[in-house]
Every structure is written in structure tokens, then in C-alpha cells.
Amino acid sequence: MTVLTDTSWRPKLVATDLDGTFLNSSAHVSTRNAAALARLRAEGIPVVGVTGRAPRLLYTVEEYFGGQGIVVLAQGAFVGDLATGEVLRQETMPSALALDITAQIEIVTGPLLYAGEYPVDGKHVLYVEPGFAWPYNEGLQVVVRADLPADGLALKFYLCSPVHDQDSLLAMARTVVAPEIAELTHAGLGFIELCPPGVTKATGLAVALERYGVDRRDVLVFGDMPNDLPMFGWAGRAVAVANAHPDVLAVADDITGTNDQDGFANYLDHLLWSDTASTAVQAPRS
After folding, report:
1. Beta 47-50 vs 70-73: how paired, if at all?
2. What confidence tier does 111 reach under pLDDT thresholds 50, 70, 90?
């Protein structure tokens, strides 16, 4: 039996993480999730994709959303309008500062591998150090740290440890880096991410809400990883897919099925379209 926290509540905007949430494990939009997206739009409810993917992967996000709507990328550092191509937000931080912060983190963690997303000549380039096991088969440039563009600006940086898992590494890094210096998070990919101060998925989503004229209390968000946590507790209602990180499950208002069980569509069926409802469950709250 499905139980929702409040069946009378209706969102004015839906925001969803992509990988592990809206997309299945093959990184595709399922038929049911695509139908739910189309039905939301037909009913006048905007849908915002909120992802850690960098702007160099914007073309993939355009495909998922049919070139429509506003999307938030790079953990909130980049916000763009897919239909018009307008960039609504692009936050960067000096590469030299990121390298200095990395050195401070390495005092408590030991040696780390480093990578960064750099805007170069109007394009976005991924630089990685030798040995950094990038999880995706996509274009990148391998360079030693000393050859990185220290005088340039970047959207975000990645730090990987050969001995610490992502949760441990994140906890250790936060002991030496204050939020006003840089935002730290992870997306479940085996490394942590270093973002400009004030850059989170929530602050990126806030840019989209301003454009749509929607209050955050009227927003329904879906997510699965610690990088989604800034949206949870900030939006009107937060839903975790069942495959989410324990920290996300612990604070979710509701829990739906996994990303491979069409959890996104299932939850919306129960909340908005009971005639097509399948399976969703309520989150345990303490």
C-alpha cells in the first residue's frame, strides 16, 4: 500500500537529479519516466534537470529533456535555458586556489589525484592527472598537475584517493575546508568534488525558480546522492529513490522505487495521477 506524507499537496515545479534517479542504470530515460515528463509539461508543471554533469555534456542533457526547459549542471555552477541557449549562471573559481585547497586536504588525507573542468577558448575541457580512473568513456586530456592552467578559472574540481573511500574522503576534507572557502560534495562516483563557494544544487535550482516565478516551497525534488542533499529540506518536498545513499534516505520526506523501477514516474503517479499508480513507499522519519 502506498502512503504519501500529504496527498493534498501539489507541486508547481518538479526538479530531478539525473544519474541514479531519473535515468536508469543504463543512463537512459525509461518509457514511463519519459511519459511522466511529458505529462507534467502538458499540465503546465515545469521540470528542471539538476545534475553534477559538466557543461561539456550539455548535449546529453538536451537529449534527455528534448531541448526544452532550464537545466542546472556542474552541481549548480552552470544554469542554462535549453530552448534559447541562454546561460543564466556560470560560477568559477581560480585554479590556483583549488590547487592550494587540494594541498591543504592532502595534509590530512595523504596524496590525492586531481582533475578539473576548465572553460578554454569557449569550450569546456576536462583535465585529469595520470592515474585518475575517470569512470566514463569521454573526451579528456591527461596532464600532470604542474602543467594545469594555474592562472585559469574552472567550474569544479575532482579529488580521488587511492586509500580512502568517497564518504571518508569527504568527511576528512570538510575538517580543513570551510564552506565559505569552497563547497565539497560527492555524487557516488568514487571521488569528491570541489566547487566554488555558495555553489550547490539548491543555489543553482534557485536561479531556475526565479526564472519560472516559483517559490521553493512549491517544488518537488528527486535525488539519490549527497550532492542532492542541499535541495532536500530546502524544497517543499524531497523524494529519494530506494537506491539512494543512506544520508539521503535518512532525510527524505518520501522514498520511491529505484531508478531501475521507474521510481520517478511511480511517485508522480501516486501524487498526481492515481489512475496509473504503481508502487511507492513512505520514508521513515525520525
Report:
1. parallel
2. very high
pLDDT of 10 above 50: yes
Neighbours of 144 (CB within 10 A): 10
Name the fold adopted by 13-90+200-282. Rossmann fold (3.40.50)
- Helices 263-272 & 31-42 angle (0-180, nearest 10): 40
Question: Distances in Å between the alpha carbon of 167 and those of 60, 226, 245?
Answer: 28, 9, 10
Distance CA 255, CA 2 (A): 10
Radius of gyration of the chain (CA): 19
Task: Provide CATH 3.40.50.1000 ranges for the chain.
Answer: 13-90+200-282
Q: What are phi and psi of 124, to 5 degrees?
A: -110, 125
Confidence of residue 6 (pLDDT cuts 50, 70, 90): low
For residue 29, give the DSSP letter.
-
Q: Domain 93-195 carries which CATH code? A: 3.30.1240.10
- The helix/strand/coil state of 144 is coil
Residues with Cβ within 8 Å of 155's Cβ and at least 6 positions away in sequence, in order, are 54, 55, 74, 77, 78, 90, 91, 92, 117, 118, 119, 124, 195, 196
By the 8 A CB rule, do 101 and 108 touch?
Answer: no
**What digits encode the pLDDT tens for the residues 183-212?**
999 999 999 999 999 999 999 999 999 999
